[in-house]
Amino acid sequence: MRCLVCQAETKVLESRAVSDENVVRRRRQCLDCAKRFTTYERMDLPALLVVKNDGTLESFKYEKLLSGILRATKKTSITQLQSEELAKKIKKEILSLGKTQIKSRKIGAIVIDHLAKENKVAYLRFVSVYRRLKTVASFEKELMSIKK
Questions:
Q1: What secondary structure does DSSP assign to 20-87, as a single string?
Q2: Residue 115 near residue 66, CB atoms below 8 Å
Q3: pTM of the model
Q4: To 5 degrees, how large is the angle CA 117–CA 123–CA 126?
Q5: How high is the pLDDT of residue 127?
Q6: Which listed residue, of 8, 45, 87, 124, carries a Cα 20 to 30 Å from 60's Cα?
């Protein structure tokens, strides 16, 4: 890494991991002018494409995943911070599959599995939108599966 001031080589004084986002914080010092600065290195993950139900491809958007989880967990015992942690956990699970393409149905199934373990109300909210439940009978069927 070159110095931001004089473009000379730098040395690393300190390195540490920042959160669980695959980021490394490095404190550096220039070998010539002795200026110090901090850099953040983020691992570049391969692009993940989502195969929609109609066959179109869309890039995976963490924000969209988080938004769905936040909507499902709104006004439940799950806090926003817990929802964000859940979304990170799900993203990590999806990326660990090692695929370049994943069906939206698979993502939905993973979210449903996690929500079922976390909060039954959030699970039911998510399932009602995800599976497009429109009748009372379909809601009752989901409620019966929760009770088991």
A1: TTTEEEEEEEETTT--EEEEEEE--PPP-EEE-TTS-EEE--HHHHHHHHHHHHTTSS--HHHHHHHH
A2: no
A3: 0.67
A4: 145
A5: 87
A6: 124
Q: What is the mean pLDDT of residues 119-145?
A: 83
Rounded to whole angstroms, how far apart are CA atoms 38 and 50? 35
The sign of the dihedral angle between the CA atoms of 101, 106, 108, 113 is: negative
Q: Which residue has the tokens 């989880």?
A: 69
How many Cα atoms occupy the beta-carbon half-sphere of 57 within 13 Å? 7
Question: Which among 96, 144, 85 is positioned nearest to 120, based on CA atoms?
Answer: 144
Which amino acid is located at 5 in the chain? Answer: V
Alpha carbon distance 123, 119 (integer Å) = 6
Q: Residue 137 belongs to what H/E stretch?
A: helix 136-147
Whole-Å CA distances, 30 to 11, 42, 111: 6, 22, 47
